[in-house]
């Protein structure tokens, strides 16, 4: 008699435990635990919109703005209203002409391009300096041409250790959070179609 009672008690406890476990599993699938909710909220806070300036790797626009040698390029980007394009997720390769490169253009060219009525022409020139991707100077040696953001192509030439893109020599390269900035010694002008 004691054995039968013990067996019934054991079966009862086993069934009760199974029911509780089943309820716990069902509850987990219906409403996540506090840890799961916190984890889900944390994953929703990832991406550019939630990065803090002091924690984020500078993007290609930040790098240009922070360079005293690229103030003309920054003014051109602002005049063409292309700032948002340079902070997107990328990856982007920006071939960034120095101030000296802009100064080498025929007199009055930059001033003329910065006029509001020439915004489209300026944007086309600037987009000719942007390529999708994030390739180092050495990796660029494998290319003959690159497709630019203005839907035209630019030639890549290698002369010894030097790489020229659209006739502009890469002087330095700076990694960015959304790509890479290749500092170049010349403003690349897109061919007329």
Automatic annotation (TrEMBL):
Extract the InterPro entries matched here: Adhesion/Biosynth-related (IPR050904), FAS1_dom_sf (IPR036378), FAS1_domain (IPR000782)
Enumerate composition-biased segments (Polar residues): 28-41
Q: Where is this region: Disordered?
A: 27-51
Q: Which residues form the FAS1 domain?
A: 57-188
Q: Which Pfam families match?
A: Fasciclin
Question: Cross-referenced SMART domains, in alphabetical order?
Answer: FAS1
Listed Gene3D superfamilies: FAS1 domain
* Lineage: superkingdom: Bacteria
For this entry, the protein name equals: Fasciclin domain-containing protein
The organism encoding this protein is Flagellimonas algicola
